[in-house]
Amino acid sequence: MSRTATTLIVLLILLVGTAASATAQSGGEDESVTLIDSTVHFSESHPVFIRILCMKASCPGLELEVSTPQGNYSVEDPQRIELSFDASGNVTFRLTVDQGTGQSDLDFEMSSPDINEALMKEEADWLDNVPSPGIAVDQEIVDSTWNCPIDDCHSDPTSQSYWIVGSLEDGSDKDSIEILGQAGDYIIMPLPLMPESAELEFWLRNDSTKTLLDPFEADEDGWFHFEYPEDGNLWLRIKQDSDAGFAAYELYVMRRAVTLEASWGELSNPWGDENALSFPDGNTDGFDGWISPSDSEGDAVRVEVVGRMSIFLNCWSDDNSVNFEVLAIDSEGLATPLGSEGNVCPDHFDTIAGTSALEFRMTSDSLSSWSIRMNEYPAGDAGQMGDAPDRLWTDSDDFSLWPSIEFDENIDARMSDDEYVDVFSFVVTEANGSRLHVDADTSQPVRYQILVLDQTNWAILNSSAGGLIDAPTGTHAIRVEKLGEASLTYYDFTLVNAGEITEPELADFVDQSGLFTEYYVFAGAFLIAPAILVMFWNRKRWLSGISDFEVEAHERRRLRRLRERLTNLLAAEEIDEQVIDSALHQLGDSPWQAVVADWGEPLLRHNTEQVEICAWRITEGDATMLLGIRIANSPWELAAMRVYAPEGDSVSIGAVSPQHLFQGDEISLDTLKSGSRTFLRLTLEGEPSNVGFHLSGLVDGEPLAAVPNRALEWG
To answer: What tens digit of pLDDT does each residue of 175-206 get?
Structure first.
């Protein structure tokens, strides 16, 4: 940790310029090689300890020379070199060894040259012994607390200095220092950097006693991990052999306070009412803590997740002494254990829809640190956590569940087999709104919709199929829908911002209509001339009051041929009904006044605002007549025509052309459209002296009847 990093920095400083020197002295086999020849500046007086170990059987010629303004030092030993001195100003280090030994064969340890990074430096001589109970202590207490709550930690222990620098003048000098803490705190210490002749003791002092504690056992890396003792304060005491000389030392102490496990205090198990912790940002991020023997319930950590996340886990503890239990928490707070059996931390799993958090519960019978590393792979939709929801949000929803995307950035997402819709949010900040469109690969089996939303109730005001659309200031949405079969679908798109909506600038117009006056006069006269010509041609008709209907000669010839044809057809022995129907339809398509003029004065004529009825006898002495009906502006629905005899024998209908439903004396005409002209051939049976007609139906929803005021003489 901090000590290792410091040693590496020192070696980099000392090794600058060494390679050239080593090469220059590479002569024969017995000649020495200079591995280090460098100068380091110490801004103030600073106790320094250097240890160099030979990592092979022997390193002949291994010698360290140190030159300081206060004096020079030289130590030579083929196995182990240790040197303590007080450094200030420019200090030169020179390390030589016989050929055959290189830097990789040596292990270097050295105090940091930057004393300003130390947590505490021995300015005045520290107490030789741990004070007896009841004696007032006037010495600074070492506060090595790492203030890093699990929910609000912004520092790494390697980036802070928790080391203590001191020295012993000779074998009779000793140093005792108090470490701040309370029962349950977790203390972390590497082996002190000090001469082999020095020794570290752990003491417990309270109001009644002081006790030398049994040495704590270091782990395989040489680190002490122990719980702050109960019923007193922890003291560290450094001493050395009575015949030893000056000894510099460096201690690294870090305290993890039980009251600073979280910002609200100690972690509980299970998790309490506090909000879940945020999901880690990177692959190396996670959560760390420890459990002491006095913590019987253990620790719990709840981490925020969402549904459809693919999560990889790595749960670790010292000597695998911590039991891990992982539970999935749904939106209702219901906890479901993960894995096929208890106390299992799965390597990988997928959260189901509706999952809101994961809870890790740790227990242990011994002092142990634990670590949880977790990451999502592949990353969630739009690079955010989990799957984008499949619907628009409402006021009651947690808006953070909808991934928010930025303009002009490529967005990667996916849909699993059983999902078909993803919804993303985006924010328009321009005062006048933005003009947007979606840029995407059209070969991907998805389609896009940009949804412009009402900022009050989130109703959809406007939308586009990914095309250009104007979106006002506020929060809006993009809806992505899968097309085709259910399968894992990857897609990517970019929401392009084409710029702020701007009103077009209107140019200043100049009235130049006066330049076209002559053209306007000419164009007006040219366009009006045809109308004047038509008025001239029709002047006599309009002035003399002639009817606005005049039958052309060819029309009169056509109607005359129709009348003759119809008369001949009816006089034939075999009547062709199709030809008769065609002739009657042609009469219906002809102008009404033209038909009346061609067939002559009707035997019976009835004219009202709604209908006009005319009847002609086709052949004298024959029982067949032509009946014409002209409808005005309103249609007749459910229309029917009844024939009756006011005098003489009764009358009935024998035949009708075109074909209509008839029975007895009544014909069903169904609907007579407005402006229509209908002609019927009726063949009557019986010998009435007079025949009358009665037309009935619904006009504008009201029943209406048309009855001529006189009967047709029928001998």
So the answer is: 999 999 998 899 998 888 999 999 999 999 99
Distance CA 204, CA 235 (A): 6
Strand blocks (E) in 271-405:
286-291, 299-304, 310-317, 323-330, 335-337, 348-350, 355-363, 368-376
Is the four-CA dihedral 174, 179, 183, 184 of positive or negative sign? negative
Greater confidence (511 vs 630) lies with: 630
| 335-337, strands of its sheet edge to edge | 299-304, 355-363, 323-330, 335-337
Tell whether 384 is covered by a domain.
no
Please state, in angstroms and as integers, the Cα–Cα distance from residue 334 to each residue in 328, 355, 358, following that order. Answer: 8, 10, 11
Q: Considering Cα of 514, then 519, then 521, then 527, what sign does the dihedral take?
A: negative
Nearest to 406, CA basis, from 425, 433, 434:
425
Rounded Cα distance, 693 and 710, in Å: 9
Residue 675, Ramachandran bin (φ over 0: left; ψ between -120 and 50: alpha; else beta): left
In this structure, the strands spanning 355-363 and 299-304 are antiparallel
Are 329 and 409 in the same domain? Answer: no
619 exposed, middle or buried (CB, 10 Å; 0-12, 13-18, 19+)? exposed
Q: What is the longest distance spanned by two Cα atoms in the chain?
A: 166
486: which 2 tokens? 């259910």
Of 232, 259, 286, the domain-final residue: 259
Buried b (16+ CB within 10 A) or exposed e, 650-688: ebbbeebbbeeebeebbbebeebeeeebbbbbbbbebeb
Residue 88 domain flag? yes
The reply to whether 97 and 129 lie within a common domain is no
Tell me the sheet residues that pair with 377. none
3-state secondary structure (DSSP) of residue 530: helix
The two three-digit tokens of residue 496, written as one number = 């392009």
The 3-state secondary structure of 374-432 reads EEECCCCHHHCCCCCCCCCCCCCCCHHHCCECCCCCEEEEEECCCCCEEEEEEEECCCC
Strand order of the sheet with strand 254-256? Answer: 223-227, 186-190, 254-256
Cis peptide, bond prior to residue 658, ω within 30 of zero: yes
Residue matched to tokens 């040259």:
113
Give the model's pLDDT for residue 608: 87
Q: Check which CATH number belongs to the domain holding 617 and give it.
A: 2.60.40
Query: What CATH number corresponds to the domain at position 99?
Result: 2.60.120
What is the total count of domains within the chain?
Answer: 5
Range of the domain at 475: 393-499
> What is the crossing angle of helices 592-599 and 553-571, to 10°?
60
CA angle, corner 558, sides to 554 and 562, nearest 5?
Answer: 170
For residue 672 the two structure tokens come to 């007579």
Chain position carrying tokens 């701040």? 180
Find out whether 667 and 656 touch, Cβ atoms under 8 Å.
yes
Do the Cβ atoms of 444 and 396 come closer than 8 Å?
no
Ordered DSSP codes for 442-509: TTSSEEEEEEEE-TTT--EEEEESSS-EEE-SEEEEEEEEE-SSSS-EEEEEEEEEEEE--PPPPPPP
Is the same domain home to 557 and 703?
Answer: yes
Q: Tell me if the pTM is above 0.90.
A: no
Within a domain: residue 539? no
Q: Are residues 660 and 590 in the same domain?
A: yes
State the Cα–Cα distance between residues 192 and 551, nearest whole angstrom: 128
* SS3 category, 317: strand
Over residues 253-288, the pLDDT tens digits come to 989 888 888 989 999 999 999 999 989 887 667 899
Q: What is the mean pLDDT of the chain?
A: 85
Look at the block and give the residue holding tokens 């082996």.
191
Same domain as 414, residue 486: yes
